[in-house]
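Appendix C: a fully annotated inverse folding record. The material below is reproduced so that readers can follow the format used throughout the book. The structure is listed first as tokens, followed by the designed sequence.
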């Protein structure tokens, strides 16, 4: 195949790949916008629309480009298909994040008492000038989990879920989670138990230090992982008395830079496209990569 013909075929493949990525990403972003606005399937965990669906769309992208991939010699097809799949998946993941952040409802108030519990639940983030945590009623839940490693050096992760009720708002709890990781494979049981004890003793009251000065909170909804928080909150003896799980309002303490950071995701999309298409262009321009008899239709 002549150099000019190869360039034409390469640009055609790259152009159609970009067109399909943009079209699928826009369609996915619109679906996520509708998903968030109309609260479709609130019981579906975030990982499904955030990761699983973009991976499936990456497979769909490769299927849509099956004719273009057919222009390659057999040994190059898997590599090019993988680059297209990975590039598309990264773009779709970040497009979904941008769409979700665009729908995020941030409520700013001086005091949480100005909002009803139902108004709080309809928000995604709260920015509160000051809160009054009831630090005398805090409680915590400890969990540990072994994390397998392909290299043979497993790790154990300690998690401490802490909950603190508010003095002036019945049913509302501030939440935070701390974690610590240690090597696990050759550690004695006594050493492991000492690590657990030290971690709990060091972290179990950290929410008392963090909560009074916290201003940014993520409102936990049904699609979030809050079962541990809910368990701890149900065991807190608050000044308001026992509160049923369905009436709990859980606010996870966050840092200010966790809200509205979609600009980073735009950068990730640009970098994904730049790297992915650079690799594709370099690969496709190589000799012997394209079938000599391929003609664009």
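Designed amino acids, in order:
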């Amino acid at each position: 195949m002549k150099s000019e013909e190869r360039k034409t075929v390469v640009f055609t493949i790259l152009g159609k790949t970009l067109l399909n990525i943009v079209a699928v990403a826009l369609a996915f972003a619109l679906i996520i916008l509708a998903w968030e606005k109309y609260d479709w399937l609130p019981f579906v965990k975030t990982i499904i629309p955030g990761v699983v669906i973009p991976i499936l769309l990456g497979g769909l992208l490769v299927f849509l480009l099956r004719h273009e991939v057919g222009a390659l010699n057999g040994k190059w097809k898997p590599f090019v298909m993988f680059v297209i799949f990975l590039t598309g998946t990264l773009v779709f993941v970040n497009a979904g994040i941008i769409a979700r952040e665009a729908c995020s409802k941030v409520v700013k108030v001086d005091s949480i008492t100005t909002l009803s519990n139902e108004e709080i639940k309809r928000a995604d983030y709260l920015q509160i000038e000051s809160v009054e945590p009831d630090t005398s009623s805090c409680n915590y839940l400890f969990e540990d989990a072994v994390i397998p490693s392909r290299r043979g050096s497993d790790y154990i992760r300690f998690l401490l879920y802490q909950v603190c009720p508010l003095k002036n708002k019945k049913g509302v709890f501030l939440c935070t989670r701390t974690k610590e990781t240690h090597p696990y494979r050759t550690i004695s049981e006594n050493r492991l138990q000492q690590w657990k004890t030290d971690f709990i003793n060091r972290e179990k009251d950290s929410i008392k230090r963090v909560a009074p000065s916290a201003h940014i909170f993520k409102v936990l909804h049904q699609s979030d992982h809050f079962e541990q928080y809910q368990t701890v909150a149900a065991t807190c003896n608050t000044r308001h008395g026992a509160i049923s799980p369905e009436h709990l309002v859980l606010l996870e303490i966050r840092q200010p830079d966790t809200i509205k950071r979609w600009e980073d995701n735009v950068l990730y999309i640009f970098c994904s496209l730049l790297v992915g298409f650079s690799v594709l262009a370099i690969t496709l321009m190589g000799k012997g990569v394209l079938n000599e008899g391929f003609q664009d239709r």
